[in-house]
Amino acid sequence: QLQLVESGGGLVQPGGSLRLSCEASGFTLGYYAVGWFRQAPGKEREGVSCIAVSGNTNHADSVKGRFTISRDKARNAVYLQMNSLKPEDTGTYYCAAVVQVTCNLNSNYRYWGQGTQVTVSS
Fold first, then answer.
1. Which of 26, 33, 48, 114 is found 20 to 30 A from 93 (Cα to Cα)?
2. Whole-angstrom Cα distance, residue 16 to residue 85?
């Protein structure tokens, strides 16, 4: 069974940091482009960051310089390090994977996790 499981969300104050994890089972994540998406209440889902099979990354303008995406092939996982968090970063964060060499921030990914909640509030 192919599965993606996110973890690491929580409540954090503005300016704080969180590290989200996306762990895969049933397939080798290293052969897939992986993206992180988020959805705030009442808003459409948006692409945040992605990492290609090569390791090249892409980030939305709103998170550039604050978020970093990385892979750990040994753990079959992808991580999203989020620093200098802002209230507008609040939302449910999803990781997704697609058999694709490059990555993009569109939502045309094949496999999706259930999401982890991130709340940035004082």
1. 26
2. 5
Q: What is the pLDDT of residues 79-95, one digit of tens each?
A: 999 999 999 999 999 99
Of 33, 52, 47, 39, nearest to 92 (Cα)? 39
**Do residues 120 and 89 lie in contact, with contact meaning Cβ atoms separated by under 8 Å?**
yes
| Residue 30 CB coordination number (10 Å) | 16
Strands 77-82 and 111-112: unpaired
User: Quick one: tokens of 116?
Assistant: 């982890």
Residues near 46 by Cβ (< 8 Å), separated by ≥ 6?
A: 37, 38, 39, 60, 105
Q: Supply the Cα-derived Rg of the chain in whole angstroms.
A: 13
Rounded Cα distance between 102 and 112, Å, is 18
